[in-house]
Amino acid sequence: MRTTLALISVLAIVAFGCSDEDVGYEPTPLPLNIPQIFSDNIISPVIPTDNPLTVEGVALGKRLFFDTILSGDGTQSCASCHSPQNAFTDNTPTSDGIDGNFGIRNSMPLFNLAWNYGERFTWDGKELSLERQAIEPVQNPIELHSDWNDVVTRLQAHPEYPELFESAFKTSTITKELATKAIAQFERTLISANSKFDKYSLGEATLTENELNGLNVFMDEARGDCFHCHGSPNNPLWTDNIFHNNGLDATFTDLGLGGVTGDPSDNGKFKSPSLRNLAYTAPYMHDGRFATLDEVINHYSEGLNNSPTIDPLMKKVDQGGVQLTEQDKADLKAFLLTLSDPSFINNPSFQN
Questions:
Q1: pLDDT at residue 4, as a whole number
Q2: Which of these, 143, 118, 72, lies nearest to 126 by C-alpha position?
Q3: 3-state SS class at 121
Q4: pLDDT digits (tens, 9 = 90+) for 270-325
Q5: Burial level of 136, CB count in 10 A (0-12/13-18/19+)?
């Protein structure tokens, strides 16, 4: 009996001193809120089995995303180049890092990333997951210009972050891998699917005659011929998530995908961005060369440049482009703007 009582006492003391991890604590699962427009048309999102979404993980990722603690001098955060008001990009051709150095690429907008089936991220596809993508800006000398070891030290010494990591990942020992997992969780919740065209597709809104003609131009292989790279009502991501040389240049200083793969046939290829939220994401293209949507449309209409790796989908490159009429240009622009989602840029869940 004494032995039994002693054993019970020991177990009670051990149990009293245990952490949440030891008594079976688990972060709260957070099912992704999949819009009807997606569930009706495209397959399920891609969520890594080793980084499931949780309430605590997403909250931690959001805080990290907006925290200047990630930068070398404490002045910039992820949101400095990926602002909610700009559909998580910024309004400059190329972004300014903490040292005042501008890169060569435009910040890509961030939304609907859980449906990136190719799992290649960034303009040139060099990052093979959201988790890996989140590593680069922190340590890049022309971006946040920090060192992950220093960042982890700062986070570990912070009065709140160790507890937040404990809640999200059941450990208060902070690592680069856990920090980027949290950021990726938050980024996967950035879903945009409430544009005027989404409502039209669901029978909740009507389009004007000009907007409808713009859709026809977009889908017409003899006119706009846009849908091959940029989706359709049956692909409401409005991108194919594939890399194309869309006739921007005859020669290349930025090799794009070719710089990653080393294959000359990939030179000048960049990822097709989604056409959602164009009202908020100017300037356009991988280098932000076009300040307006009109300039983008003019490029495809009469500004194409031929090169050895030009995409076969640029069928009228020898004529300079698809040669749209001024009315078709105006209507195409009107349609493209129906893909913008004001509720996304104003969603309080995505604000700091």
A1: 39
A2: 118
A3: strand
A4: 999 999 999 999 999 999 999 999 999 999 999 999 999 999 999 999 999 999 99
A5: middle
Q: Which of 128, 79, 349, 111 is nearest to 236 (CA)?
A: 111
Report whether CATH 1.10.760.10 matches the domain 36-191. Answer: yes
pTM: 0.91
Distance (Å, whole) CA 169 – CA 180: 12
CATH code of the domain made up of 196-344: 1.10.760.10
Q: Which residues contact 163 (CB under 8 A, 6 or more apart)?
A: 172
Q: How do the domains of the chain map onto residue ranges?
A: 36-191, 196-344
Token pair for 276: 């959602």
Q: What is the pLDDT of residue 40?
A: 86
Q: How many CB atoms lie within 10 A of CB 203?
A: 7
Is residue 223 within 8 Å of residue 328, measured between CB atoms? Answer: yes
Bridge partner residues of 256 (DSSP): 269
Question: How many Cβ atoms are within 10 Å of 1's Cβ, its own excluded?
Answer: 5
Residue matched to tokens 């840029």 = 345
Pairing of strands 243-244, 270-271: antiparallel
> CA torsion, points 134, 109, 216, 228, in degrees to nearest 10?
-30
In terms of Cβ atoms closer than 10 Å to its own Cβ (0-12, 13-18, 19+), residue 3 is exposed
Neighbours of 54 (CB within 10 A): 20
C-alpha 72/C-alpha 160 separation (Å) is 20
Structure tokens at 128: 């093979």
CB distance 340 to 195 below 8 Å: yes
For the chain, the maximum distance between any two Cα atoms, rounded to a whole number of angstroms, is 96
